Amino acid sequence: DAGVTQSPTHLIKTRGQQVTLRCSPKSGHDTVSWYQQALGQGPQFIFQYYEEEERQRGNFPDRFSGHQFPNYSSELNVNALLLGDSALYLCASSLLRGGEQFFGPGTRLTVL
Amino acid sequence: AQKITQTQPGMFVQEKEAVTLDCTYDTSDQSYGLFWYKQPSSGEMIFLIYQGSYDEQNATEGRYSLNFQKARKSANLVISASQLGDSAMYFCAMRAPDRGSTLGRLYFGRGTQLTVWP
Q1: Beta-carbon neighbour count of residue A74 at 10 Å?
Q2: Cβ–Cβ below 8 Å for A97 and B106
Q3: CB pairs under 8 A, 24+ apart, for A48-53?
Q4: Does A94 touch chain B (CB under 8 A)?
Q5: CB neighbours of residue B2 within 10 Å
Q6: What is the DSSP letter of A112?
Q7: Among A66-70, A88-92, B31-35, B64-68, the least confident range
Q8: Phi, psi of A21, deg, nearest 5
Q9: pLDDT digits (tens, 9 = 90+) for A52-68
Q10: Which of A58, A90, A94 sits opposite B103 (nearest CB)?
Q11: DSSP SS3 for A85
């Protein structure tokens, strides 16, 4: 049973560029959340998707957007990249009815 | 507001000994879930254990147990028989609400760096 998968593993971009990160949830999970983890910090919530809709959003600008597909997989898009967007981006999946919440291995984004 | 507090920036334990990592939380929700995650230097956030607020018994998963004291709002992680591979950052997190039409986001503490020595 595959867990949460994310791609790519690492990514290097320059300021002003756009990036798309991808996530496939654990089999059977219907809810996907994205988190940003800066170096030395705990993860910060970006947004959550369920039934292809954004259900909750953290304190992140509109440059951060996402999508959930019918197969529950999800994308995170970041436009107009800033140096401060350099971080580990984590995807987590769970069931809406609660219980365990699993994370993927993360995508490490570096903005130069 | 939801809040998680981990007051131990670092902990040291000798191999094969037990160690307790502290976590206190604050929420006004009646339905909430408490999580512990392990994050090694590779960065992956590894799920260890989950405790629902309505669960009457403390959660256990192998060498991990969660000491849930609801009245004190604490959810300490106990690792028995520590191993060298347990050296990592450990995060306590809370999700509120924990079920229903809206599943809450995870709120994380600042983490505790655990070092296991031979």
Answers
A1: 25
A2: no
A3: A48/B103, A48/B105, A49/A74, A50/A96, A50/B103
A4: yes
A5: 17
A6: -
A7: B31-35
A8: -110, 145
A9: 999 999 999 999 999 99
A10: A94
A11: helix
Distance CA(A60)–CA(B11), nearest Å, equals 33
Q: End-to-end alpha-carbon separation of chain B, Å?
A: 41
Contact yes or no for A101 and B98 at CB 8 A: no
pLDDT value at residue B91: 97
Phi, psi of B9 (to 5 degrees): -65, -35
The CA distance from A102 to the nearest CA of chain B, in Å, is 6
Instruction: State whether B37 and A103 contact (CB < 8 Å).
Output: yes
- A31, burial (CB in 10 Å: exposed 0-12, middle 13-18, buried 19+): buried
Please give the angle made by the CA atoms of A37, A43 and A46, to the nearest 5 degrees: 90
Rounded to whole angstroms, the Cα distance separating B14 from B81 reads: 9
Give yes or no for A96 touching B (CB within 8 A).
yes
